[in-house]
């Protein structure tokens, strides 16, 4: 029997030079938060300013996960940059709403919507089809 019933998986893709998409799968809690933090720190090290967090495969997030989201939000804002959460499952969205995190960190329903918000923040014109 595994000691970690729901290990964390983080897939990192770079849709644009200064933007990173982290697709998270599994529980984002006290047991996995440090691993998630390492992925984020690595992307800051590589000069990313905009962080898109796809939480569509995260069935549970506790205060450890929320604290990391808020920390990356603060760090990105200082660059200046941004953080967006994409497609949180209902249970995670409820926690984000109840704690007020969704007021601070924008929620998007899709990668396209999130990239559009990044464009509006940076003033970059959006290319047709992107």
Task: Name a few traits of the molecule.
five-stranded mixed beta sheet, disordered C terminus, 23% strand, alpha/beta, 130 residues, 42% helix, Transcription Regulator spoIIAA
Q: Overall 3D geometry?
A: globular
Question: Using only CA atoms, what is the Rg?
Answer: 14 Å
* SSE order, one letter for each helix or strand: EEHEHEHHEH
Share of β-strand residues: 15-25%
Protein name: Anti-sigma factor antagonist
Family: Belongs to the anti-sigma-factor antagonist family.
Domain STAS: 17-118
Description:
There is one protein chain. With 130 residues, the protein is α/β, with parallel strands linked by helices. The chain has one domain (9-122): Transcription Regulator spoIIAA, CATH 3.30.750. Helix content is 42%, strand content 23%. The chain has helices spanning 33-45, 63-77, 90-99, 101-104, 111-122, and strands spanning 9-16, 19-25, 50-57, 82-86, 107-108. It comes from Streptomyces cathayae. InterPro entries: Anti-sigma_ant, STAS_dom, STAS_dom_sf. This is Anti-sigma factor antagonist.
């Amino acid at each position: 029997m595994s000691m970690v019933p729901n290990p964390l998986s983080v897939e990192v893709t770079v849709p644009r030079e200064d933007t990173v998409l982290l697709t998270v799968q599994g529980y984002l809690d006290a047991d996995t938060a440090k691993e998630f933090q390492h992925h984020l720190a690595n992307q800051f090290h590589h000069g990313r300013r905009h962080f898109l967090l796809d939480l569509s495969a995260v069935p549970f997030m506790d205060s450890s996960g929320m604290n990391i989201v808020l920390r990356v939000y603060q760090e990105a804002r200082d660059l200046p940059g941004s953080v967006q959460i994409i497609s949180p499952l209902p249970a995670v969205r409820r926690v984000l709403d109840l704690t007020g995190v969704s007021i601070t960190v924008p929620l998007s329903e899709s990668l396209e919507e999130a990239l559009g918000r990044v464009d509006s923040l940076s003033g970059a014109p959006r290319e047709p089809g992107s």
